[in-house]
Amino acid sequence: MRTCMKSTFFVPLHPNLRRVTYMKKILYIILSAFLAVSCSTTRFSFVRMTTTEGVIDLKLYDETEAHKKNFVKLVKEHRYDSLLFHRVIKDFMIQGGDPDSKKASRGKLLGEGDLGYKVPAEIMPERHFHKRGALAAAREGDDVNPEKASSASQFYIVWGTVFSKEHLKRMQEHYSKRRGKEVVFTPQQVEAYTKIGGTPHLDGEYTVFGEVVDGLEVVEKIQGKRCDKNDRPLENVRILKVELMK
């Protein structure tokens, strides 16, 4: 064990050296504070989600900084531990993060629980889109939420389906008319949706802030669960714990 001992002799510094030493201390404090803030938002880019069906490893995107910071905060506070995947739709997605689901009775309608605040939208479909395995934030509809701000805690992981290039082209035309502006899928989107699948109709509407890097087979297993009329699995699928990974 290391002990801290007082020095027997103390030699006063020359006034000029004192100023230099003082400035070095100030710079050290400033640098330390800067690094602490930087590390708090960018240090943790990977998250391990242990569920009753297996482990899902997720990567959080640095570009969606507000969502990443919020998700890391909730993980540190253990907010997701013991919550359910309360909404599951085959060939579409699995949704969790409702704080009311922790102690919900079997069959109870879920999905309205939240933490009392929203996260500003960080929608960038040309870069982060709804390919299979994408991690995105749930939100309220445009009628009450025109800014498309995200739920503080509820999220979903995409499964989706595989599309043909012809189908994607028709979707582009449809959404261009519907949204009143040209919608064009990037080559990266086209490749992903025609090879691994996803939910392209959600692009531009919800913030995608991460993706599955390991454990897609667990997502597949969950999205295949039998559900009631409200899309809640008949057999509880629980998030046992969520941990930050360096």
Describe this structure in words.
This protein has 246 residues and is of the alpha+beta class. The protein folds into 2 domains: 14-43; 44-245, Cyclophilin (Beta Barrel). Helix content is 29%, strand content 20%. It is built from 5 helices and 10 strands. The chain has helices spanning 15-42, 65-76, 165-179, 187-195, 216-223; strands at residues 46-51, 54-60, 85-89, 93-96, 118-119, 134-137, 150-151, 155-158, 208-214, 239-245. An 8-stranded antiparallel sheet has the order 3-4-8-6-9-2-1-10. A two-stranded antiparallel sheet has the order 5-7. It is globular, with a radius of gyration of 23 Å.
Q: What is the number of helices?
A: 5
Q: Give the overall average pLDDT.
A: 87
Q: What is the strand arrangement across the widest sheet?
A: 3-4-8-6-9-2-1-10
Distance between the termini: 28 Å
Strand content: 15-25%
What spatial form do the alpha-carbon principal axes imply?
A: globular
Order of helices and strands: HEEHEEEEEEHHEHE
The CATH topology annotation of the largest domain reads as Cyclophilin
CATH class of the largest domain: Mainly Beta
The CATH fourth-level homologous superfamily of the largest domain: Cyclophilin-like
Question: How helical, in percent, are the residues?
Answer: 25-40%
Low-confidence stretches: 1-15, 32-41
Strand segment count: 10
Q: What multimeric state do the chains show? A: single chain
Q: Mind describing the biggest β-sheet?
A: 8 strands, antiparallel
Q: Give the structural class.
A: alpha+beta
